[in-house]
Amino acid sequence: MTTSSLNYPFTSLTPNTVYSFQLKATDSYGNATSYSTATSTYTNPAQPLSVSAVASGPSAVQVSWTANGNPTSTLYKVYNASNGIIIGTTTGTTYMDTGVSSASSYYYAVRAVYASDSTSYVESAASAIVATPSQATNVSMTVSTATAGVEIPFSFSDSAESHTVTLNSISNGVASITIQSTPVTVSLGGGQSQNIDTDGNGHNDMTVTMVSVGSSDASFTLTSISTAGGVLSSPPTVDTTTNENQRAMLINEGTETTTTRDVRLSFHVTGSTLMAISNKAAFDDASFESYTDSKPWTLTEGNGTKVVYAKFRSSRGGTIIYSDTITLTGQSFDDHYYRMYETTI
To answer: Phi/psi of residue 271, each to 5°?
Structure first.
């Protein structure tokens, strides 16, 4: 007696999804049997692709990847690719690793778990190695709505205290973040700054500068303020006497682009006796000078978005930081080549 088996390839199915099948036989006269008993099976998950890791300050790394067709119910396990230790699970495509150390290197891989047994998995390629910056008196972060609600730790090199920052929301170009020890919530648009008191002692000890706000992410810097200069009533304020929407500083009066590195900065601040200007958020190359309402300035080399920072100081010692951005075009190379060169030297 001879038997034969039949098979039929089903294509264009969704990965990691259960499908049920039934069969019936039909002869050449159109007579058909009843359907067979149904049988079910899961398709395999697809391999997560494009795993990337970006440091968010000295104590956190944001890991992202693409689902590659996996359904939103797919469970992913994120692990440290150097030691194989699982650091977290999620059904999203972004994970914030808050268990890292400053001035250290990490790389990650992501496993898409089989829905059929919740144990087997398909593994991604590893991300490129990312290095977390050293602790300093200035911390730069980029956070996204995909990790909203996650408390990201950070601390400054001049303080033994630890803090956390949490993205609450982004709406209409304004990002809301909460910083604690003592919780302080600020809502800022791109280029806006605010001094805050994180321990409730009546003195500002930190400046929050919102560098940019996108539709789903926000970049900002957190700067430590010495307690001698942080009295709540002393920082300068924006001059809104002629324009209630006036910004503290503008590059080329607020134009979006320029083809030359030489620009003019204008300031609209009251109560400031000194100011320091820099292309760096840390101001490590700047010193205070007398306050004026305008100043010529030279942007860093290369095409790209440029940020200029201004720190204003009142006669009582209070300080506040503002910034503005402009896009430089028409140069012989792009900005990231300049940053690579600057880091190398």
So the answer is: 85, 10
CA-based R_g, the chain, Å: 27
Question: What tens digit of pLDDT does each residue of 201-222 get?
Answer: 767 788 888 888 999 999 999 9
Do 142 and 214 share a domain, yes or no? yes
Express each pLDDT in 268-310 by its tens digit.
Answer: 888 889 999 999 877 778 888 999 999 999 999 999 989 898 8
In terms of DSSP bridges, do strands 257-258 and 319-328 run parallel, antiparallel, or are they unpaired? parallel
Task: Using alpha carbons, select from 322, 103, 143, 321 the residue that is nearest to residue 225.
Answer: 321
Q: Are residues 115 and 1 in the same domain?
A: yes
Report which secondary-structure segment, H or E, holds 323.
strand 319-328
- pLDDT value, residue 290: 93
Cross-sheet strand order for the sheet of 174-180: 152-155, 162-171, 174-180, 184-189
Domain enclosing residue 224, as ranges: 136-232
Token couple for 166: 């949490």
Provide CB contacts within 8 A for 238, sequence distance 6+: 246, 247, 248, 268, 269, 270
Which one, of 92, 88, 96, 90, lies nearest residue 72 by Cα? 92
Residue 105's beta-bridge partner residues?
131
Domain co-membership, 263 together with 283? yes
Per-residue pLDDT, averaged over 87-116, amounts to 95
- Shared domain for 247 and 338, answered yes or no, is yes
Domain shared by 46 and 130, yes or no: yes
**65 neighbors 50 (Cβ within 8 angstroms):** yes
Q: Which amino acid is at 248?
A: A
Where do the H-state alpha helices sit in 134-192? none
The yes-or-no verdict on residue 337 having pLDDT over 70 is no
Cα gap 326→186, rounded to integer Å: 24
In 60-147, the DSSP E strands lie at: 61-66, 76-80, 85-90, 94-97, 105-106, 108-113, 121-123, 130-131, 138-144
Q: How many domains does the chain have?
A: 3
* Alpha carbon distance 51, 125 (integer Å): 7
